[in-house]
Specification:
The complex is a heterodimer. Chain A is an all-alpha fold. Chain A has a single domain, classed as MetI-like fold (Orthogonal Bundle), CATH 1.10.3720. Chain A is 73% helix and 0% strand. Chain A contains 17 helices and no strands. The radius of gyration of chain A is 24 Å and the shape is globular. Chain A starts with a helix and ends with a helix. Chain B is an all-alpha fold. Chain B has 2 domains: 45 residues, no CATH class; 237 residues, MetI-like (MetI-like fold). In chain B, 70% of the residues lie in helices and 3% in strands. In chain B, a hairpin with a 3-residue loop joins strand 1 and strand 2. In chain B, helix 1 packs across helix 13, helix 4 packs across helix 7 and helix 10 packs antiparallel against helix 13.
Chain lengths: 312, 306
């Protein structure tokens, strides 16, 4: 399976800033500054409401005690403001297992997503800037692999890893996270655009070795693409559920996602201790770091993604 | 692999010269990715192919059974019921989600909104929420006990249909998945729209084309590549549906069966049923079905482009 779609769109960036607008007849609202529409804004407001409502629900209900949760209206505060109390309960419940899950998640994200980004940057640069035997085969295999459902690989990977004695260790989650075909593709497109071949040639003529050229010349130019890939692989590893679900049996190695689900199952089981307030507060704590990362790094990932979509 | 130029004397390789040396350096960069890729993608595929030709029984151990597992998969009603369910899901949820995402992207791109960057980030935000948290939140909201649905029932004295009942649970899952991925798809479309040259719309506007005409005749054709890719990703995602039903299962145990989706079925087979050879076969069949459909989407998308 090749992917003609990836190269179907020619690069249109060069025409983007063409001064065609100057030749166009003067209008009050040019395409650059069209008239704003209240109706459209209201419609968008509804969509934003749909997107934000569950998050608002989460924040509100994280401030309620277990008892208040059950007998108050879901979309408004009620009773004592128990957010801080809930947070400290979440962090200390069951000998602070939540903190342990948080640290596990951090380990999986730092090593898994960091490693995935590193491999994707190296590979994307290699594919974009070197001509070598088997390049087309690499492309075809990797793009073909995108269509293979990751979950279809999970069972055989589990069996393989259990033969290798890796299951129930952090490696079983980290190793499969190291591959991001989408990241490789994005870095490839990005490197082709952002790193001028002449610059590399100049560095080589100056006697710079290939690795040195990569780290000193190419890497700084690739920064927005790297941030983008890093954020998206981080989301993937942070949110990973299926892979740890099959690989990890020991709650001490659970990531947050598995831990939260375990609490929820405990709360839903008859006779289990109902800890819905902890499930809700824990959910809130789980999403805060990613939401912050996306908000703070907006400028980088949006420009990286825009570059990646030039050919998409 | 001839002409081994020692790396140390590579002081002054003429640009374009010594292709094989440059070729090896290319592999130096791509190699690490490909090595791990082989371990976590290619090896499991080969291994599941191998597994699918055997059967492991308590009595008699492992034996070669040829294509028996495949035959069983083709006659397995539970498996095909699960496939039918995700196909139905895909036929409804993917168009709704991508349609909404496209509308949001077009609205953002039109420049006619107040507070554009607020809308862009708030619609995108659910993407950063893990499927587990998304499903738990929506599961609680759906709940008739302390969920919003229960609140509305109490407040208005009505009884809304239970979103977690067997007849509605698929639609409820569709809503969760739509919520999670509208923003992601919107961003793909929006980034593609931003690089459509403005001169194209201006030409159309001079010719007297209305906004709607510009959208259908200029903007949508210009981002066809992005539309095809987003469709393929969504199709693959639908076929892989697992997290949402698996997590909702504890809240709606009667509505979600162990073979609700193909993935849930393979999961049950291999971890509760201990039928790993058959589970590997089902995974393979599912992988092939997914690839065929993704390929068909791609062919169709590309044909229109001609």
């Amino acid at each position: 399976m090749t992917a003609p779609s990836f190269t179907a769109e020619p690069t249109r960036r060069t025409t983007h800033r063409a001064p065609a607008s100057r030749r166009a007849p003067r209008r009050r609202h040019s395409p650059d500054r069209p008239r704003r529409s209240v109706l459209l804004t209201v419609l968008m407001g509804l969509t934003a409401l749909y997107a934000l409502l569950p998050l608002v629900w989460l924040v509100i209900n994280a401030s309620k005690t277990q008892k208040n949760l059950l007998d108050s209206f879901g979309l408004w505060f009620s009773g004592d403001f128990a957010l801080w109390d809930n947070i400290s309960q979440t962090l200390t419940y069951d000998d602070g297992i939540f903190v342990r899950w948080f640290l596990n998640t951090l380990l999986y994200v730092v090593v898994g997503a960091g490693g995935a980004t590193f491999l994707a940057v190296l590979g994307g640069y290699g594919l974009a800037k070197f001509d070598f035997a088997g390049k087309r085969a690499v492309f075809a295999t990797v793009i073909g692999a995108v269509a293979v459902p990751a979950t279809a690989l999970a069972v055989p990977t589990f069996l393989m890893f259990s033969k290798m004695g890796l299951t129930n260790t952090p490696w079983s989650v980290i190793i499969p996270s190291l591959i991001s075909p989408f990241g490789l593709y994005l870095m490839w497109v990005f490197a082709a655009e952002a790193v001028p071949t002449e610059l590399l040639e100049a560095a080589r003529v100056d006697g710079s070795g290939e690795l040195r050229t990569f780290f000193r010349v190419a890497l700084p130019l690739l920064a927005p693409g790297i941030v983008t890939v890093l954020l998206f692989t981080m989301v993937q590893t942070w949110n990973n559920y299926f892979l740890p679900l099959i690989m990890i049996k020991d709650p001490d190695w659970y990531p947050l996602t598995l831990g939260l689900n375990a609490w929820n199952e405990q709360a839903s089981t008859a006779g289990g201790q109902p800890v819905f307030n902890l499930v809700i507060t824990g959910s809130l704590l789980t999403i805060v770091p990613l939401v912050l990362a996306f908000l703070l790094l907006q400028r980088y990932w949006q420009s990286g993604l825009a570059a990646g979509s030039v050919k998409g | 692999m001839t002409a081994v130029t020692p790396l140390t004397t590579g002081r002054r390789p003429p640009a374009g010269g010594s292709r094989s040396r440059r070729g090896r350096i290319g592999w130096l960069f791509v190699g690490p990715f490909m090595a791990v890729f082989a371990l976590v993608f290619l090896a499991p595929i080969a291994y599941s192919l191998y597994l699918s030709f055997f059967r492991d029984q308590l009595v008699g151990g492992t034996s070669f059974v040829g294509l028996d597992n495949f035959q069983r998969a083709f006659e397995d009603d539970q498996f095909w019921a699960a496939v039918g369910r995700v196909v139905l899901f895909l036929a409804v949820q993917v168009p709704v989600m991508l349609g909404l995402a496209l509308l949001v992207a077009l609205a953002l791109d039109s420049g006619r909104l107040y507070g554009k960057s607020f809308f862009r980030i708030s619609v995108f935000l659910p993407y950063a929420v893990p499927a587990v948290v998304a499903t738990l939140m929506w599961g609680f909201i759906y709940g008739t006990r302390f969920g919003l649905v229960g609140n509305i029932n109490d407040a208005l004295g009505v009884s809304l249909p239970d979103p977690l009942s067997p007849s509605l649970v698929l639609a409820s899952i569709g809503n969760i998945v739509t919520w999670e991925f509208i923003g992601y798809n919107m961003l793909i479309f929006y980034s593609a729209l931003r690089v459509v040259p403005k001169s194209l719309y201006e030409a159309a506007e001079i010719d007297g084309a209305g906004q709607w005409r510009i959208i259908t005749a200029v903007k949508i054709p210009a981002i066809r590549g992005a539309l095809v890719i987003a469709t393929i990703f969504s199709v693959i995602g639908s076929f892989q549906l697992f997290n949402e039903p698996s997590i909702l299962k504890s809240l709606a145990p009667n509505a979600i069966t162990t073979y609700f989706t193909p993935n849930l079925y393979t999961f049950t087979l291999s971890f509760s049923g201990r039928q790993q050879n058959y589970a590997a076969t089902v995974s393979l069949v599912m992988g092939v079905v997914t690839m065929i459909i993704a390929y068909a989407v791609q062919l169709r998308g590309m044909r229109k482009e001609a």
